[in-house]
């Protein structure tokens, strides 16, 4: 079995009090990212910058009503923001912490081909 490197950063071991204060906030973000469809929505928004509901529904293979429920939750929690242009509503990633977590997930699960 491979040894796990537990050194995730110099501050983690010395600043557990700060982590304890932010644990609920971190858990909330991870809970939002724990749904596969929401995770895919956010990944597409990272890749494309912004997308309409129709384009997102097609990209993640969800009906518009189902996608709208996910987007409403993400919007309420501040992970995405909207911009309206005529009849189209464009969504974009709005939380820099979520962007950092998504980048880390990409690095772990989708590393560039060596």
Summarize the structure.
The protein has 114 residues and is of the alpha+beta class.
How would you describe what is shown here?
InterPro entries: ArsR-like_HTH (IPR011991), HTH_ArsR_DNA-bd_dom (IPR001845), HTH_MetalResp_TranReg (IPR051081), WH-like_DNA-bd_sf (IPR036388), WH_DNA-bd_sf (IPR036390). This is Transcriptional regulator. Keywords: DNA-binding, Transcription, Transcription regulation. This protein starts with 9 loop residues before the first helix and ends in a 5-residue tail after the last helix. It has a single domain (26-109), classed as Winged helix-like DNA-binding domain superfamily/Winged helix DNA-binding domain (Arc Repressor Mutant, subunit A), CATH 1.10.10.10. It has helices at residues 10-14, 16-33, 36-48, 53-60, 64-76, 96-109; strands spanning 50-52, 80-85, 88-93. The chain is globular, with a radius of gyration of 17 Å. With 114 residues, the protein is α+β, with helices and mostly antiparallel strands. A three-stranded antiparallel β-sheet has the order 1-3-2. The chain is 62% helix and 13% strand.
């Amino acid at each position: 079995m491979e040894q796990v490197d537990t050194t995730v950063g110099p501050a983690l071991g010395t600043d557990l009090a700060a982590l304890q204060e932010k644990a609920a906030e971190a858990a909330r973000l991870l809970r939002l990212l724990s749904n596969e469809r929401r995770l895919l929505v956010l990944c597409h928004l990272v890749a494309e910058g912004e997308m309409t509901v129709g384009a997102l529904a097609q990209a993640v293979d969800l009906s518009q009503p189902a996608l709208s429920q996910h987007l409403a939750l993400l919007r309420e929690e501040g992970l995405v923001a909207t911009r309206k242009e005529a009849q189209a509503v464009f969504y974009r990633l709005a939380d820099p912490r979520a962007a950092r977590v998504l980048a880390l997930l990409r690095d772990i699960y989708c590393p560039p081909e060596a």
